[in-house]
Write a structure and sequence with these properties.
binds flavin mononucleotide
Length: 191
Amino acid sequence: MTGGHLQIVVCGADPAAEVSKLVRAAQSQSWTAAVTATPSAMNFIEPQSLESLTGHPVRSTYQSSPGTRRSLPATDALVIAPATYNSINKIALGLADNYAMTSVAELIGRQVPTVIVPFVNAALAARAPFRHAVANLRDEGVRVLLGPDDQWEPHPPGSGNEQQKAFPWTVAFDTAAQLAQEPRTAATGQL
Ligand SMILES: Cc1cc2nc3c(=O)[nH]c(=O)nc-3n(C[C@H](O)[C@H](O)[C@H](O)COP(=O)(O)O)c2cc1C
């Protein structure tokens, strides 16, 4: 698919500071992009530079700036990256306790092709709630980039800085763009 609109949701982990790499990957393929941040993620990003880059305000609350539409724009794909332990567990449970989580809940419900790129250490990833969350999201049709097949593994506790350098921004976009190209299943009613 050439061109489309990518919705990006960033969570509160260090790679969030580099989310412009995902925006640029999308723009290089003639996609537009907009960034939504969890409240925690606002401590990791530079909203103004992202707004200049995307041409869209960074949304984190229900409050919209003047001229901003309240409803979600038409979205061809959703990438949640970096996705924290906290948000992944919440998304799997369907919790909508902030603007970002509400947007995610609705976009997944609308069958928008969705890619999640976790950034979690191995201790958190070993927890049963997290493993169940990943399995449940995959069952729901969400693409979670995690594990040997995706060449993206949880890092040992304390080694996040090294792992951040390898964060798969381009793979995340390419995967989302590929999903956006695939016909939806008949069950979604969107064939
Ligand atoms: C400096 C810093 C780095 C963090 N890194 C991570 C991380 O890599 N992965 C993670 O799951 N949580 C990390 N956290 C914890 C999350 O920010 C915390 O769980 C927060 O509640 C996540 O909120 P969110 O999921 O709404 O973004 C970090 C927190 C801080 C302060």
